[in-house]
Amino acid sequence: KARMNCSKTPGFVLSGVSNDAGKCQFLFLLFLTLYLLGLLGNLILLLAIITDIRLHTPMYFFLSQLSFVDLCFTTTTTPKMLGDLWTRSGSISFSGCLTQLYFFAVFADMDNLLLMVMAIDRYAAICHPLWYPLLMTPCRCGVLVGVSWGVAHSVSLIHTILLSQLSFYINQDIPHFFCDFGPLLWLSCSDTHLNEDLMMALAGFLGMMPLLCIISSYAHIFYAVLRVPSAQGKRKALATCSSHISMVILFYSTLFATYLKPPSTSHSSGELVAAVTYTLVTPTLNPFIYSLRNKDVKSSLKMILEQLKAQTAYSTDLGGVSLRYSDWISLEHLHLAHAWPRLPSCIMYN
């Protein structure tokens, strides 16, 4: 590649979203609605899990991590995309591009790894129910999540540092609505073989290893379910996995549609739709598919609303002391303070 018109700190223009004024207004409203809906759903789910002691179980601990990651994942790309739709500018600095790319990779990898961890949790709950409280202790759950965060940050840091050493053609358009590895490598005027080889190796490891682990976990789960004598028992066992399976299918289908394609200088409308689904729609649907239709979560949300209403109605100073939220926690919930880990029969997605 020619070295002329190259820079270590170029500026880019994100041109993946339509510049048509009518389409921009429609897409702005659509993406803003999805973004706010995702924020609301994940925040409500986090509130329910944190405040209700009955949800202090391994499954909901992993689910709270997933909700937090999805909040950060959508916030990494969507506000910038909304701003570009509103101003129809799309300009982004090199440092801003690398920052967005770093956090995008971190949260995308965390989504992938958390789906694997949740599959391991389902495997332990269904295939080893008597050992489950000993297998999924709070310490081990914390280690699983901590290692996932460490791996995600390390891999993203390696990619970002290597990209920062490259030179890029100046005043170039990125045919996407956020900074991604492929378009940036295409615009580089340096030798990118090391970046491409490392990206393929790490992407293969982080992409295939969790997927193979999920497939292996569910192969053991289905084999265990087939040995259950009653049809009702089989339905109950599979019901604990249905939400997780549906989100695994949605996550990997959009992921493969976005990245398993020949390299190109431009993105078709279908590829952009897949990328929007992967970065915005999937994190928005997660809290609804996973838990907002779950009886435990619904009960927790109802309890929180009732407590807030009661606190609003009776928030008066009694002898100079204001009633606090903790005053409304029932003795039943205090009694459940040591309920984690609970038996797997209590741990259900649906």
TrEMBL record:
Membrane-spanning ranges: 26-48, 101-120, 141-162, 200-225, 237-260, 272-292
Location of this chain's protein in the cell: Cell membrane
Entry membrane topology: Multi-pass membrane protein
MF-aspect GO terms: G protein-coupled receptor activity; olfactory receptor activity
Gene Ontology terms: cellular component: plasma membrane
Chief location of this protein within or outside the cell: membrane
Domain named G-protein coupled receptors family 1 profile: residues: 41-290
Keyword set includes Transmembrane helix: yes
Gene3D superfamilies per the UniProt record, alphabetical: Rhodopsin 7-helix transmembrane proteins
Keyword list, A-Z: Cell membrane, Disulfide bond, G-protein coupled receptor, Membrane, Olfaction, Receptor, Sensory transduction, Transducer, Transmembrane, Transmembrane helix
Protein role: Odorant receptor.
Family: Belongs to the G-protein coupled receptor 1 family.
Name by which UniProt lists this protein: Olfactory receptor
Lineage, uppermost ranks: Eukaryota, Metazoa, Chordata, Craniata, Vertebrata
